[in-house]
Recover the amino acids of this structure.
């Protein structure tokens, strides 16, 4: 175990990763629901914004996953 005395940090990082996973799932669902070729302008704009958010969020999520991997059991 390489995180002696850092158990709270480890738990917080794991919880953050789990929450981000849930949010990523929701972003993917919304991205699939609101398409770039939708009939309404609002839906097309939402689609474009969701895609940008999802791409940026994916970068942050990968950082958290990398941090989580540093805690080896």
């Amino acid at each position: 175990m390489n995180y002696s005395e850092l158990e709270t940090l480890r738990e917080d990082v794991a919880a953050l990763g789990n929450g981000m996973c849930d949010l990523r799932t929701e972003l993917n669902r919304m991205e699939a629901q609101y398409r770039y070729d939708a009939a309404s302008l609002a839906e097309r704009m939402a689609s474009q914004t969701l895609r940008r958010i999802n791409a940026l969020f994916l970068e942050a999520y990968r950082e958290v996953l990398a941090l989580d991997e540093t805690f080896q059991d």
About this structure: The two ends are 5 Å apart (CA to CA). The mean pLDDT is 93. The longest helix spans residues 41-69. The helical segments are 7-33, 41-69.
